[in-house]
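Per reviewer request, we include the raw input and output of the structure prediction for the construct analysed in the revised manuscript.
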Amino acid sequence: MSTRVPADTRVGHIHLKVTDLDRAIAFYGDVLGFTLTQRYGTQAAFLSAGAYHHDIGLNTWHSRGAGPAPDRAAGLYHVAFLFPDRASLGAALGRVLAHGTPLDGAADHGVSEAVYFRDPDGNGIELYRDRAQADWPRQADGTLAMINDPLDVDGLLEEGMGTSP
């Protein structure tokens, strides 16, 4: 019996505890650009990037009105949303910054470009795009050689506005 999952296994969706459902729907919908697909009153909502019934679940079942989870505790570090190209990542970053959400960081990992911030409940968010696998940095033996270099945020934003940096 195999102990490995099939190579095409993927994360189907995330489901986050939030303190204010309307505020969370506005952030994930209006700021990040996901579409509300279903809502259950004031307790839960589901949003999609468009091709799936839901990519994000939000609920207040155990968290309505609570504060954020402590930083120094076990739990979700961040959720990462993979964008199909640099322009769509730049456009999403522009919406995040226009909303007044500060970045926690931004990095060029060689294999990808990523920005990091928090949603209104303090949940960590990563928005990123992958480079083509042929462009990934590799060691002499072929293993990945990921890096953590500064990201050209201004260039990314320019590309998101439809212009080349």
